[in-house]
Write a structure and sequence with these properties.
Blueprint: H1 3-10, E1 28-31, E2 34-41, H2 54-76, E3 82-93, H3 101-116, E4 123-129, E5 138-146
Parallel strand pairs: 3-4
Antiparallel strand pairs: 1-2, 2-5, 3-5
Amino acid sequence: MSVVEDRLREMGLVLPPPKPPVANYVGTKQSGDLLFVSGRVSHRRGEVGTEISLDDATIAARDAMLDLLAIIKHDIGDLDRIVSIEQLRGFVRSSPSFTEQPRVIDGASDLLVALYGDAGRHARTATGAAQLPFGAAVQLDMVVRLRSNTATVFHREPDRLDVSDNER
């Protein structure tokens, strides 16, 4: 088990089974050492500020982050390959008067910092939305930086000797 998963267990949390995409997209897409993680919505449904409390929405953001981490683990094999969290975008299905979206998304951000320390600190957006897919309270997506799975090896063709026929 990875160090990150050990930390999760110490916090009383576990990764859920990874969910497959619900439409025509992939769960993650790697470009160089960056891994782009597609958005996932929370299990909690409803409008924050009227149907869902701030505390429940914060837990929904944390749980949605667990879903993202499960997808990452499924796709790359080991959460310890994450060397930094680069960006987190959070969307909160909000009532017109609800303005504490950053506090909701802290549920995800706080988990990342607890798991990765300073490497878990990230650029972030927390946006209110009138509606999210399936009526979810929270939607998250993120970008992480990975360490290479194997050491980089530069292969070089051996020098070829030009041997004339009479030296064979």
